[in-house]
Every structure is written in structure tokens, then in C-alpha cells.
């Protein structure tokens, strides 16, 4: 406890770090306040309340702003969708690949295109949001004027959230976009844990304590797997420049066990609503379609979870393949005079890295699948749906990843100022650590 207090004092004794932490807290407070500002012309007392299904997942990520008909009702999600589209285009389009390789100028162009695409996606999603989630009886003004004004307000709200995220990254601590998502998820935790405690009552306090203990070990397991890396040794040749000898040291390429992060779960969750949606069109004509729609609308059914797990495993391999390129790693090593001991540079190095990446991706994919279906397993044990969501899935992975990223940056500030780090041994490795050759 004494070491913890000393570390906190060290953190706030660094002026730049203290200012960044306070800036981050200020931006997050602004974001949360905006989540409670209802769109003009909406009577909040006539709103249907919390959504279910994919809309319920979106509402969890936005901290209730979606169901509140807030000016931040779409939050940062259109920007994330635009970022995913642009990232996929850098794999499919040669022109986008060229921009990505142009360095800082290329990244600025891609970021600008992402912002433009965000506006287009927000306008399209705002129409669907206003027509499907806000009933006519909740609208107190002319509907046409309400639709036009709300589309503009929702688009401006998303752009403002995007600006807040960028300001947190520049002036605060941690990744701004991820921080906005995490604060939305955490905002639901107090209500979820209090609801679970009340549902157990005084007679179920022992079971509630066991739930907290299980949640603790699940979080620790997610942290360990998120931190896990397979290190490939790289030897650099010695170079004599003038009277000095450079190189000759051994370094490592850290390949993460879970290189895809949370993206496979997001992709799989998007597709998991297709079977129930398609089957619902023939539900009145076919008993099979009716039962299929019922099965895939229940996230605790074994059919739903088996298909969900298979999709996550497939998407993990797909996203790892497009985000980590063995050929690029091999080419970078060759340019810098590095080689893997016992492996020839070039094609053999690429094949060697690809084989290792394939071997570690499988256990990482299986882990992601287990984490994704863990909330369904928790629900089968009688845990409330709101509290079960924190046992795994997108929410837990995002929270763990963002916390690790933030702690990594704080530790870097402490070590640069010659203070003791947050850990006695080892280092905190966040998601921001890219696979690269030093």
C-alpha cells in the first residue's frame, strides 16, 4: 500500500503527466455530460428504454447514449466503422497501400478520408436510428423538421466525439477513441453490479461473492493472454563505420498471441444477427424458419454460441493476416541487416514467421471464442444479463486493452523521469505496441 501511494505521488509530481491526466478527465466528463443531453423535440419520458440485441450491445458501448436519444446517440461508432473500411481498403486497393507506405503524409491523407467517410456513415446511420428507435409519440415537433435537424445534430455530435478522442490522444493520456468507448462501458458497471447484488438478496450473498471472485480471475486471464507474446530472436550483423563498430546485438520480434484484438468479435457479432433477420421473413410461412429465428435471437442457445465461436476463429485468422504481414517484417529485417539465426533471409524468413504466426493464432482465436461466449455461460448460471456482459465479450476486451495502454504510457513517463515503474519486474505491454523490428 505504501508503494502504491508513493507511485501516485510520483505520477502527480510530473507536471506534464499531471496535466495530461487532468485533461483526460475533463474531456471524459464532457463526453459523459453530452450523453445525457436529449435531442431537441424528443420527450424522454416516452422513449422505449434500453434496446436489445445488436442495439443493446451498441447501447452498452455508448454508455446509454443510444437509448437516451442523446446528441451523442451514435457516439464514436461511425468513426470506428469508417476506420475499419479504410483499413480494409489499404489491403484491397493499391492506391491506398501506396498512401500507407508514404509515412506521415500518407497517414494524414488516410485520416482525412476516414473523417469524410465518417460524415457519410453518420448521416446514413442517423436516418436508421431516428426512424427505428424513436417512436412518433416521443416526437413533440414537426417530424420532417425533427428528422433534418436531428440528422445534423447527430452528425455534429459524432464529429465532436471524434474531436474529443483526438484531443485526448494529443493532450491527454491513452488512446482517445478507445478511452471514450471504455468510459461508456464502465458507466454501466455500477448499475450492473448493484442490480446483481439486489437480485441475490441477503440469502445469496455467498454466491455473489463467488461471482466477484470468478470475474476477478476471468479479468486476470484476459490480461495474461492479452500480454502474451511469442518472441522471435533477430541477430544484427556488425558494421564498421569509421573507427566505431555498430550492430551485432540480438533483439526480438514480439508476435502477440492475440494480434487481432477485439475486431473478430465485432465482425462476428455483426453477422450473428443475419440468421435471425433472414429467418424472420419466412417465420409466418415455415415452422423451421420460425424456430431458427427464435434460436438465433437467443444468445444463450448452443446453436448461437457454436456459430458465434466458429465465426470468431475464422475472423481472427482473417484479421491477423491483413494486420500482420510476415513479408513486410522480413523485408524490414533485411534492410536493417538483421536475420533470424538458422534461417536464410528473404523467402525462408517470411515462411518461418508465417508458420509461427499461424501456430500462435489458433490458441489466440480459441481464447477469443471462449471469452466471447462466456457472458452466455454466466447467464445460464442465473447472473443478470447486464452483469454477465462484463464476464467477457467486447466489453471486457476493450476495458483490459485500454487500461493496459494507459498504464503503459504512465509507466513510460515514470521511467523517463527516473522514478520506479508500476511493476517491480517486467513491463506493461499495451495494444499500441506494433510488431516491428527495432
Please provide a written account of the structure.
With 438 residues, this protein is mainly alpha-helical. It has 2 domains: 1-187, Preprotein translocase SecY subunit, CATH 1.10.3370; 189-438, Orthogonal Bundle (Preprotein translocase SecY subunit). 66% of the residues lie in helices and 5% in strands. It has 18 helices and 5 strands. Strands 4-1-5 form a 3-stranded antiparallel β-sheet. It has a two-stranded antiparallel sheet with strand order 2-3. α2 crosses α8 (176-186). The longest helix has 34 residues, at 347-380. The radius of gyration is 24 Å and the shape is globular. It starts with a helix and ends in a 22-residue tail after the last helix. Residues 432-438 have low confidence and may be disordered.
